[in-house]
Q: What sequence folds into this?
């Protein structure tokens, strides 16, 4: 075979299996509509419904703790936002509204992006981008990102465990040293990991002049069609709401 073969399996993967292109459309839909300034009419229904999408996706993977934390955070911020708009006033109302509004707009997109990265292998992502005929100037950096954040998370956990053994933690003997002894090694690791992942991507054939083969199985299924229809419906309702406003 020409080039390098990237393999990935979804047999042991839990949860709702979606094509990487469907995940990308979901991410764009959620981040775009959640950041819209409109909170009237149908948007009062669309936004809470979209905020439940990452909860359902994470819950389908049986990550109950993560799903529960996200749902609790969003519910509290959503209630605080409504309370600040209806009952509070003055500077306190502005602060509560600002913090809660930022969280209700950012949290769904962040959780959807985190789910997308954790549930998509590099092979699947590269295969999807090749199907979309994306240029390698985009594919290579994005494929590095897909491994960058999980690797950083693992590195931070290793640093955290090492610091706990030395009593450097919140509530420990030297809590003020947490920033120095945790963040400085993490920053050094970030630079090294970025370089190593870039070199690994090029070593595996990304950027090679020949066409690579990919044995990763991707494609659209019934659940992908449902997800696309939901995204299209949300955008149609959003545009219809904007026409009514103007």
A:
């Amino acid at each position: 075979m020409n080039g390098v073969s990237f393999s990935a399996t979804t047999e042991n993967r839990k949860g709702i299996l979606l094509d990487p292109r469907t995940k990308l459309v979901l991410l764009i839909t959620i981040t775009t509509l959640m950041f819209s300034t409109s909170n009237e009419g149908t948007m009062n229904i669309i936004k809470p419904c979209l905020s439940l999408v990452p909860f359902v996706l994470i819950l389908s993977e049986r990550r109950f703790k993560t799903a529960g934390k996200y749902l609790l955070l969003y519910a509290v911020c959503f209630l605080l936002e409504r309370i600040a708009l209806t009952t509070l006033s003055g500077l306190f109302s502005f602060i509560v509204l600002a913090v809660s509004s930022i969280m209700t707009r950012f949290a769904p997109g962040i959780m959807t992006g985190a789910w997308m990265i954790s549930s998509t292998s590099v092979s699947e992502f590269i295969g999807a981008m090749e199907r979309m005929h994306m240029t390698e100037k985009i594919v290579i950096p994005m494929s590095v990102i897909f491994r960058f954040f999980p690797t950083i998370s693992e590195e931070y956990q290793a640093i955290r465990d090492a610091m706990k053994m030395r009593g450097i933690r919140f509530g420990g003997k030297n809590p003020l040293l947490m920033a120095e002894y945790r963040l400085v090694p993490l920053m050094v690791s970030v630079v090294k990991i970025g370089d190593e992942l870039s070199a690994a991507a090029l070593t595996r054939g990304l950027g090679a002049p020949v066409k690579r083969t990919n044995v990763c199985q991707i494609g659209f299924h019934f659940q992908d069609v449902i997800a696309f229809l939901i995204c299209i419906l949300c955008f149609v309702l959003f545009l219809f709401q904007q026409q009514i406003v103007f």
Q: What stands out?
A: The longest helix spans residues 90-119.
